[in-house]
Amino acid sequence: MTKKRVTKIDPKEKLSPYLDHQSNRQKKKTKAKTKVSASLSQLRNERKSALLKRLGLLVGISLFAILVLGYYISPLANVKSVQIEGETDLPVKDVVTATGIKASDKVVDYLFNKQVVNNKLSQKYSEIKNVNFRVKHFNNLVIKIDEYHTKGYIKTNKGYRKILSHGKLGSQYIPWSKVSSDKPVFVGYNHEISLKETLNLFNSLPSDFQDQIKLLSGNTRRKSQVIFLMKDGNVVIGNVSTLKSKLKYYNKIKTKVGKNTLIDLEVGAFSRPLTPNEKRAYGIT
């Protein structure tokens, strides 16, 4: 009788794939749990950090608001002094009075509501174009005045007044010592209409010709006539309607004549020496 051959089987070998699979699954589960745990921990930290930032921002804003409110209701926010800045001939004390600013007023109110003061001053003083405010040392209010450009001056019985770039006359009478030699003087203009017409003509002229004019005389024979005393001592006569178009002849004539010459551009275009009486009349010596 033949004996059957018995093959030995190692149970571990048969179970090894299963055990390895189970082991890998267990490792993956452990790894996944670790990742989830790490993600949750990171998320909690991020949320905590964001919460702290928002809390810090709210605290900062609250503290700032408390400081601002505390400053506003304290005497430190009251106007202590008012200072005027800018090149102006206006009386400083009168300007400050015209603003209506009181010592009990708050400095901050004027920083955000300058238009009220601007309107008050521009209505009283035609020279003022705009005003701006700034604060110095907590409660010292500084008003910066921006004035209209001065085109010239008009002579009156009380003194000289500025002719401003927007066509109005200055509110103040100034002495001859404050009249700029760079600007022309309008004399003999008793009617505002004739002054306005001449001023419109003057503004339409080339700037290089404007700079040569020393005086504009309203003492003319005709309403349409204009008389310019030039800085070189010559006198130019023209017509309100045609002078601008005839200036091309002025430069040609000017190069051929000397000082104290009358250059007439009213009808034609010619020149002649000024008479002694004309020199005295125009103040030419």
Query: How much helical structure, as a percent, in the residues?
Result: 40-55%
N- and C-termini, Cα separation? 166 Å
CATH topology of the largest domain: Rossmann fold
Mean of residue pLDDT values: 84
What string, H for helix and E for strand, traces the elements in order?
Answer: HEHHHEEEEEHHEEEHEEH
Number of helices: 8
CATH class value of the largest domain: Alpha Beta
Short description:
It is found in: Cell membrane; Membrane. The chain has 285 residues and is α/β, with parallel strands linked by helices.
Key terms for this structure?
single chain; 285 residues; alpha/beta; Ubiquitin-like (UB roll); Rossmann fold; eight-stranded mixed β-sheet; three-stranded mixed β-sheet; 8 helices; 11 strands; 43% helix; elongated; POTRA_FtsQ_type
Topology:
Layout: H1 11-73, E1 81-85, H2 92-99, H3 107-111, H4 114-124, E2 128-136, E3 140-147, E4 150-155, E5 160-164, E6 185-187, H5 192-204, H6 207-210, E7 213-217, E8 225-230, E9 235-239, H7 243-254, E10 261-264, E11 270-273, H8 276-281
Parallel strand pairs: 1-3, 4-6, 6-7, 9-10
Antiparallel strand pairs: 2-3, 4-5, 7-8, 8-9, 10-11
